[in-house]
What does this fold into?
Amino acid sequence: MDRNRSLTALSALGQDTRLDVFRLLVKAGADGMLAGEIGAALEVRQNTMSANLTILHSAGLVRNRREGRAVRYFADMEGMRGLLAYLMEDCCGGRPELCQPVIEAVACACGD
It folds into this structure.
């Protein structure tokens, strides 16, 4: 991930509803959630939710899959890994062992 993509991702997460959406989708895991389910869970109108999901998708933080007339969304863990890798690229002045607690804290054995 480069600087511009990182800024786009951070900007997308810098809004309360989008941050809530991303966290909800992380919690949903591999099952993801339908757009309507996300809106209902967060009590956000459909058109507002659609705009927020579009921003997260454009930022590489969510992916989607069409299911008939509905769209299911998933947290894009590869996108988040790319963002975290960019942020920690030059970790601890060349002493990556100092960053190990952070890496362990964000490691997930649950897959995508």
Q: What stands out?
A: The chain has a mean pLDDT of 91. Residues 31 and 66 are 13 Å apart (CA to CA).
